Amino acid sequence: MRLKVIFLFVLMGFLPVLSLAKSEKGKNFGTFSWCLANDIFAITDRRFTDGFQIGWMSKDLKNYRENPWLKWMPFVNKSEFQHSISISLGHSIYTPDQIWRSELIEEDCPYAGIFYFSFGIHSIGDLRMDTLEVSIGILGPHSYAEQIQKFIHSLYNGIRPNGWDHQLKDELALGVIYERRWKLPQLQFNDGSRLEFIPHMGVGLGNVQTYASTGMQIRFGRNLPKDFGAPLIRPGGDCNMTFRRSGGSGVYAFFAVDGKAVLRNIFLDGNTFRDSHRVDKKYFTTDILLGVSMRFGRVNISYAYVLWTKRFKTEPKEHIFGVLNLSYSY
Q1: Which among 246, 180, 176 has a CA at the least distance from the CA of 206?
Q2: I want to staple 51 with a disulfide (CB 3.0 to 4.6 A). Which of 7, 92, 121, 281 is the partner?
Q3: Cα-atom radius of gyration of the chain, to the nearest Å?
Q4: Are 39 and 46 in contact (CB under 8 A)?
Q5: For the chain, what are the domain ranges?
Q6: What is the pLDDT along the chain (330 residues), one digit of tens a residue?
């Protein structure tokens, strides 16, 4: 109950910022985004097994310098950049492989679920984007991951997850993420298609995840949108939404790689201040993504196939799942 009260007060604290965006006379606020990640796309049911996120990103905040909630933010006072805010709600579920077993599976990752709210501010130029995102959530039984997974399994495969008595305990989940992206000059081909490289670097701090990361997204296609990459959910943390769209239709394929140096991952290290199940994590991991994105006017649909290298020492093999995103600009 105490965690819910804290969560409510923090959410209320962001209302003045949201009212700033609504003061733009009802004009074209930006983008709604819905994202689903699940390993059923890869015919597995383990590790990061399910996640969803819904989000909204505003259009340019013309009067951001006058708002006391935003003027102290880093990089926000650069007049040559567009500035937007985003909010999102998400939920993620993690389980071991053999979910039908009721005993503690010591060599496999803990059962865990998290429900979180994120607020981000974005500084967007033609060739660079900075993002600062703050998230707060509830990890443990009050994320209701157990009830959600059991309900879903009752609908489609009949396998009952029996090990949730060993899940991580309730904990307030806090995190701050900063990331910078660049767009390198595009390569244009005679048939009108383009090749684009979007490198990035970032850090995350918090009791859920603490890491440093770097990587690149490469995309190839026609009429590439004026954004900084396909919108992909990042389990347990942040979301990349699509913005600054160009008009018309277009399609492109993308490949992305992201390497992380991980100091803390609560889904492997266990609860911060209480005894809980844990496994020995790997400190260096890699994510590899391959997907396609299609745009029809204001609607964008993308799908990515994701491979995670092994996250902990007793993990038998890499983890694969799919991510489906639908977004609408208005």
Answers
A1: 176
A2: 92
A3: 20
A4: yes
A5: 2-329
A6: 444 444 444 444 444 444 444 443 434 458 898 999 887 766 666 688 888 899 998 887 776 666 666 666 666 666 677 888 889 999 999 999 889 999 999 999 999 999 999 998 888 888 888 889 999 999 999 999 999 999 888 887 668 889 999 999 999 999 999 999 999 989 999 888 999 999 999 999 999 999 999 999 999 998 888 888 876 665 433 444 555 545 568 899 999 999 999 999 999 999 999 999 999 999 999 999 999 999 888 888 999 999 999 999 999 989 899 899 998 887
Identify whether the C-beta of residue 269 lies closer than 8 Å to the C-beta of residue 278: yes
Is 186 within 8 Å of 198 (Cβ atoms)? no
Distance CA 301, CA 215 (A): 23
The residue assigned the tokens 């930006």 is 30
Q: What is the dihedral of CA 313, 200, 307, 49, to 10 degrees?
A: 80
Task: Spell out the long-range contacts of 283-287 with Cβ–Cβ below 8 A and sequence spacing 24 or more.
Answer: 284/259, 284/260, 285/259, 285/260, 285/309, 285/310, 285/311, 286/257, 286/258, 286/259, 286/260, 287/215, 287/256, 287/257, 287/258, 287/259, 287/260
Q: Letter for the amino acid at 11?
A: L
Q: What is the pTM of this model?
A: 0.84
Query: What CATH homologous superfamily does 2-329 map to?
Result: Outer membrane protein (2.40.128.140)
